[in-house]
Amino acid sequence: MSNSTPSSEPAASDSTAPDTSIAAAPGSSSSGVTRDDKASTAPAAPTKSTSTPASTISAGTMPGRSAERTRNVAKRAARKDRPNFIQLTHTPLIPERILRQYGAYSWYDDRFRASARLLQCLWLRDHDIPTAASPVNASDNPAANAGFGSILTVEAANAGLNFLSSAVHRHCLHSWLMSEPGACYEETRLFGNSLSSMPMAFNLLAPLAWDLDLASRVFSRLLPGIFQRVERIQFETSPGRRDTRFNPRGEGPYLGDRSAFDCAIHGVDVSGTPCIVYTEIKYSETLNHTNIAKMRERYNEASRQVRLYDNPDSLILRSPPIEQFWREHMLAQLAVDNGVTAKAVFLAIGPELNRRVQGAFQVYEGELIEPNRQEPGRVPFIPMTLETVIRAIAHAGAIDHARALWGRYCDFDRVYRLSFQQLTGDASPNPTDKPAQHLQATALPPIRRAPVRRTRASSRRPSDTSITKQEAV
User: Residue 292 CA to chain centroid, in angstroms?
Assistant: First the structure.
């Protein structure tokens, strides 16, 4: 990607200097994020009727009731048009031969990652995006594909096809080019890996950065009583990356490393007090690697300084993958303590069905002091599912954007039905030619579904934990 020639136009405006937070992007729409950025055509004006309908007469005599009736009809129409995003209780078990057939097989994938990789392969096929998957002995065994169908070719990556729209790609390019010194952008994953959480962060939140009214509706719904209005959104940011200054007490103001957040959402709370929602976003991470930050003495000092933990010296906080949340939560609290913002929230987002990610959230939450025992001014940790965020986007009015996100990242029902039909022989040779076909199949067994639930975990150490993204050097 570094050899490509990105657009020289900043995503915010051609007449202003670039900034890492963008309020608007040209040619973008908060309610429609698609691969084809086509201008919508205004509908033709309705033909005026010469007759006087009865509803007009009623409106003249009872204007209040007529207006109320009109509002109720509009509300019912809006509810009917709003999609009902319902998730499976768990991801399906995909046979290896089906994964190989679509270039989605990887021996180290767990159950969620295998389903997520197959979903990305299907999405890329839907949009005719070339990938790195290549057939091996296709004449003898067409189902034995090697390579990953979730990895874009270099040309496709350079063209920005890993994003939901060209506007999102331009926003990402701007943020990358104007990134903070020391920012941890991994270009290959960002532009060429459809399974990565890095491009997902832009696909999820860049359209909200263009439409701050939409962003305000979304986050006031997600964080009621905490967040009221969004003023700007930044990606891959830190309040004190490698800041090694010391205050009079001899303590470094931050962590002195490269720890950073995927996103920082700046705004105000319901009382008008400045507030920042520091955000960490996960998608397909299996959390089974040992690539963790090098322990520093400053971490131990900060763990006691921020006064967030029942036991600031706990080994669980220092174990993968909990240590990443530990570092970032401390960083958010230090931002408040050092006057960067009056209030802050540490928000962690991950798919509902990624049990390892959700389990890590719960284990970390179990290490925190109970909210009713915390000192004033402590930064809360709020875990949230990706599905919850997408539903909030739909409820805020950006239904097309929510549908695009669900189809790209959360439609595991599609993966289940594809696998079932492939195993029963009911599917066409290439079911992704028409993505809606497999959703219309009949006589399939019922699927038990469950609502989103949030529980507080105990603080026992998980058996298989780690992180995939090293944020400190």
Answer: 22
